């Protein structure tokens, strides 16, 4: 069988799943390709940077409509392709095909959800079982995740990563020597890169309320940029109600690309266009129109309300995202003691590790 990537991409754009045998072949070839990538991939602008998608495939289609299609637009995806949304399989399938088809124009960075442990709890595993009747496809993709790069540098100026900085990483060279070809560890530099968050109220590192990674403040950012002769850190990982957030005197940006997160947060999303002179422009967008996407069926709602602790479509039970009195809803574990999730612009995404490490 000859793999026809263009046909695969076309059928995914037509909302058709690929056959299991095709996914196997695509993942094997993409692993070979990723194996030769450094832990720090250097690319040039112009490039359009995309934050968390979390299985919101119809919003990803909207991103291509807004930002342009491959290979006309160069894309850098910052991770968290799967979990939470209803279409993780379609999302990771199309991104993998695009990476394999246009390896120099599409970059895929690893997020904390590109992990066996996390995807078994937050939806991707269950979705693979429902859509393919076995765990094979989940195995192919989670094996592939071990090969994804950890970071990208744009024009030697902008450091891009899913989560943030690590107290054990001072230089880019220290990232280059990490053995990344494995499941994301619970701690250490690799975990920090995918789990950490900026904290505008601090200067140094502190313990993260997520239970993995660290929070880092203004001095940490300044030191890292100075030491590595860069001028900006670009990351994803945190829901921003306005779709993006810029911190630390324009030294760090968060880009969030899942509008109306989990189909109920009511937030905006953005993609970040980085121009040839380093200029940054956030292109903000809303959720794709309801009439252009299939509504979740009762069966899909059941899929997400049974067995998944965060209960995307929980009916007022204690698992509801943002539901009153939610014990583990969005912001429900907030260290500020508030149950709301609009107290700041960038808020903590659902507190994954609180379940993850239970
Ligand atoms: Mn994340």
TrEMBL record:
List the Pfam families.
Metallophos
Presence of the UniProt keyword Ribonucleoprotein in the record: no
Please name the gene that encodes this protein: PPG1
Entry keyword annotation includes Metal-binding: yes
Q: GO: which molecular function terms?
A: metal ion binding; protein serine/threonine phosphatase activity
Put simply, this protein is called Serine/threonine-protein phosphatase
Keywords in alphabetical order = Hydrolase, Manganese, Metal-binding
* EC code: 3.1.3.16
Give the reaction(s) catalysed.
O-phospho-L-threonyl-[protein] + H2O = L-threonyl-[protein] + phosphate
Q: Which residues form the Serine/threonine specific protein phosphatases domain?
A: 109-114
Homology family:
Belongs to the PPP phosphatase family.
Species of the source: Mortierella polycephala
Protein origin, superkingdom: Eukaryota
The protein's matches in InterPro entries, at most eight in alphabetical order, are given as: Calcineurin-like_PHP, Metallo-depent_PP-like, PPA2-like, Ser/Thr-sp_prot-phosphatase
